């Protein structure tokens, strides 16, 4: 199974890169393909990232659970930039279920996430929720995201997303 397809690769985003405005900050060539489901994985928040002032999203295997996200078509010329953005994550190829059938995708899994769970900043959570809404992920999944407890941080973050100014 390979996520490569000629001059591009398929990328499964489940965190802040769900939001079109966010992914285009660094990966301007990304093109939305489809919503997708990663079966037998769960969404977790772990570590602490200076960029977002809170925990970051990751996935880990968990039978019976699922993670929804976006399949993006990314030009190979942006591969190094995406790897840099996901610096403390390991690249993995996964099979994502879409309306058109299974799609092999690159995704990223946080190194040493187990046992290091934490709360995301309200900014990060808001970007994820808005990305899920923007790409019509299932309402029950969006509700699950809305219920994630954040860390209450109210200062600035290092990612230029227009609607985040309301949190300052």
Automatic annotation (TrEMBL):
SUPFAM superfamilies named among the record's database cross-references: Gamma-glutamyl cyclotransferase-like
Keywords, alphabetical: Lyase
Entry EC no(s): 4.3.2.9
InterPro entries registered for this protein in UniProt: G-Glutamylcylcotransferase (IPR017939), GGCT-like (IPR013024), GGCT-like_sf (IPR036568)
Keyword Lyase listed: yes
Residues forming the catalytic site: 86
EC top class named in words: lyase
One annotated GO molecular function: gamma-glutamylcyclotransferase activity
Gene3D superfamilies to which the protein is assigned, alphabetical: Gamma-glutamyl cyclotransferase-like
Keyword Nucleotidyltransferase found: no
Origin superkingdom: Eukaryota
Positions contributing to substrate binding: 11-16, 124
A Pfam entry, by short name: AIG2_2
Protein name: gamma-glutamylcyclotransferase
Species assigned in the record: Pristionchus fissidentatus
């Amino acid at each position: 199974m390979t996520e490569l397809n000629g001059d591009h690769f398929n990328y499964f985003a489940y965190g802040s890169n769900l939001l079109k405005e966010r992914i285009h900050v660094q990966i301007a060539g990304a093109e939305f393909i489809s919503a997708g489901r990663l079966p037998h994985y769960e969404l977790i928040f772990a570590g602490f990232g200076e960029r977002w002032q809170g925990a970051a999203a990751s996935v880990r295997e968990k039978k019976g659970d699922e993670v929804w996200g976006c399949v993006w078509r990314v030009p190979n010329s942006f591969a190094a930039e995406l790897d840099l953005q996901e610096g403390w994550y390991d690249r993995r190829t996964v099979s994502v279920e879409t309306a058109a059938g299974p799609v092999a995708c690159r995704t990223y899994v946080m190194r040493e996430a187990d046992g290091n769970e934490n709360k995301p900043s309200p900014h990060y959570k808001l970007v994820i929720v808005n990305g899920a809404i923007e790409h019509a992920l299932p309402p029950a999944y969006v509700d699950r995201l809305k219920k994630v407890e954040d860390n209450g941080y109210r200062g600035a973050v290092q990612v230029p997303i227009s609607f985040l100014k309301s949190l300052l």
